[in-house]
Amino acid sequence: MKLPGGFAAAGVACGLKSRGGLDLGLLVSDRPATAAGVVTGNRVKAAPVLLTKRLLRTGSARGVVVNAGNANACTGRQGILDAQQMGAAAARAATTHRRQMLVASTGIIGVPMDMGVAVRGIAAAADGLSPGGLDDFADAILTTDTTRKVAAASLDGGASIVGVAKGAAMIAPEMATMLCFIATDAPVDRTVLTSSLTTAMPDSFNAISVDGCMSTNDCVLVLANGAAGGESITLEDARADAFAEALRGVCARLARAIVEDGEGATKVVTIRVDGAVNPKEAKRAASTVASSVLLRCALHGADPNWGRVLAALGTSGIPFDPNLIDVWIGGEQLCARSAPGPGDGGRARLALLEREVEVRVEMNRGGASATVLTNDLSAEYVRLNAEYTT
Amino acid sequence: MKLPGGFAAAGVACGLKSRGGLDLGLLVSDRPATAAGVVTGNRVKAAPVLLTKRLLRTGSARGVVVNAGNANACTGRQGILDAQQMGAAAARAATTHRRQMLVASTGIIGVPMDMGVAVRGIAAAADGLSPGGLDDFADAILTTDTTRKVAAASLDGGASIVGVAKGAAMIAPEMATMLCFIATDAPVDRTVLTSSLTTAMPDSFNAISVDGCMSTNDCVLVLANGAAGGESITLEDARADAFAEALRGVCARLARAIVEDGEGATKVVTIRVDGAVNPKEAKRAASTVASSVLLRCALHGADPNWGRVLAALGTSGIPFDPNLIDVWIGGEQLCARSAPGPGDGGRARLALLEREVEVRVEMNRGGASATVLTNDLSAEYVRLNAEYTT
């Protein structure tokens, strides 16, 4: 996959990941880029998240430096200084101002960064910057992910959007635990970039749940450097809609890739809720169902246990009529009006053996719908998370 | 264990549990008893829960009939009729009015009760009623539990309180998925019984969490028949406090027994939160931490991953200062002011190898505390819940 024009990237192995492998990435634009971002809603935010959030206020950046292996979260005042030092080192290497370099981290919480290692890694990454460095950059941000996550879209006029992400666990709605970096050479202005990202979030990164745990380090950052040339795209421009739609597609594909690669997951589960009073209620219902550990265990075992869907829904706080719920699993209506439905349980069970699974809930209250992607809960997830820091 | 005076119980194997074993219990008082109860906060309530909730309004009952193997939840209008028929059959067998017989069920959701089997079981249980039938009754309500759960307290004047419970999974704060039946021959009036139960709940059944999933079938029922004799205990009576305290003790022991026997659990985890602004906030913080799948995996692996405590706390919605949190795991202060603390990680790791584990959080906001009991999340939990209905 090629980076958009004017961007270069690199990924190096500097020693921050205890298991080895690429663990430091640098993405740099050769000219100032418009920047937008969204960061975790967790009250406990990692030092790089706090720094990046502040830097984003300028609406402009030249690049981002990111490491895996250490989240630089819950590291106190030193953590803030370390994040600043990472940004400064990367800015120096990219010959730009330190306030133009965004910083992100992922990995273990509560352990001070080894800054000697990080700064050497940044220098090495700067030396390796190249327009073909996307794959190394994408690999350098992974933790327990098993696959590289990249998505791209082409725009009229030769511009493109390329995004990379990491996920794996601590993925909850209203911010997945994940990092996502998107670069585009489309000449979009700040309002278009920000509004496009805002539009893309609800149906992508805020519509996935792996384990209901929200991280301290999440961020989605977008840089638009305009290297493709052409007139600046403003909100009034018809091209703004096309850009927003393309960005939404890239975000949705990366979000799905995160769920597909969820820790220990064997299935991608689409939870679709229809018939809610409004979209917010639909989303809340879908998220509550997606967060049910019991349901996700049942799906892992290919057990079409629709009772667990109702049990979860009943804890959502939504004042629905408990006698009016319909549930389909694997296309079979197993629950009609909150009682056993006409669907074939055997066929539903067969459908649950597939990699793609759908649970659909009809609330019979109104016309709003929402979809949340999650996956099944396996013994492997437990094993991974029991052993992660040991 | 002996039942209080005037009570008889029985448990029989009638065939409602697909795996066999005792699955129908009957508890009857030889005279009218004062009755109080608390049922699930889940919006989706099982048919027996709806029936029992209604019957409790009279404040009086002669007994309770309960089955395992089928929850009679999400079974529509027929489910209500079936619950009524169970109560009527049990009332007939105990020669009392049908409105005097409470009904409870646990087991699979969304499958109609086999009423032929249930009614034959009720007749058999009625034939077997005896003052020594407590253990069989306690066994008949178990599902994936591995141990019988009984607790008792003696009161001045020769009266006693005896309770039994079942738990295992779908255990969340603000009502565990569980059944609990308590009998006492103390001559307490309705206000004392109700207020004592209300007082006992927050620190017992509403302070435990196994998997954050709230069931459709929970109930805690208390019958007081006064068979021990003596003057009726009213709220003004000093003995009312002693009764409330004894009931609290019985509830707390049963609640702990449920957590100790949580599905797949290898540890009992006490989450204690201090320094909250008020008890409600403290409880919310403790519950949020206790519900973190990631933290519970870490504890299973004896990994003192305090960062996951902060990450969970940050999603609680409590407006705390993210720089002021202290965390102790296994008595070691691993986090001070939201950064690595002076405690010894190695010693914390050793402490986590024990069966009893404590995680303590100091929020440094106020003087309120709360404690929630939970357990670790093991691969065995996933296995049990992937295979439960198959």
Explain how this protein is built.
Two copies of one chain form a homodimer. With 390 residues, chain A is of the alpha+beta class. Chain A folds into two domains: 7-260, L-amino peptidase D-ALA esterase/amidase (4-Layer Sandwich), CATH 3.60.70; 268-387, Ubiquitin-like (UB roll) (Roll). Helices cover 32% and strands 25% of the residues of chain A. Chain A has eleven helices and 15 strands. The first copy, chain A, has helices at residues 47-55, 76-93, 115-128, 134-140, 190-200, 238-260, 279-290, 293-300, 306-313, 345-351, 379-387, and strands spanning 7-12, 24-39, 60-67, 101-105, 149-154, 160-166, 179-184, 208-209, 219-224, 268-276, 326-329, 332-336, 339-340, 356-362, 368-375. In chain A, helix 2 runs parallel beside helix 3. The longest helix of chain A is centred in the middle third of the chain and has 23 residues, at 238-260. Chain A is globular and about 65 Å long. At the A-B interface, helix 2, helix 8, helix 9, strand 13 and helix 11 of A face helix 2, helix 8, helix 9, strand 12 and helix 11 of B.
Summarize the helices and strands and which ones pair or pack.
Two copies of one chain form a homodimer.
Chain A: E1 7-12, E2 24-39, H1 47-55, E3 60-67, H2 76-93, E4 101-105, H3 115-128, H4 134-140, E5 149-154, E6 160-166, E7 179-184, H5 190-200, E8 208-209, E9 219-224, H6 238-260, E10 268-276, H7 279-290, H8 293-300, H9 306-313, E11 326-329, E12 332-336, E13 339-340, H10 345-351, E14 356-362, E15 368-375, H11 379-387
Parallel strand pairs in A: 3-4, 7-9, 8-15, 10-14
Antiparallel strand pairs in A: 1-2, 2-3, 2-9, 5-6, 6-7, 10-15, 11-12, 11-14, 12-13
Helix pairs in contact in A: 1-2, 2-3, 5-6, 7-9
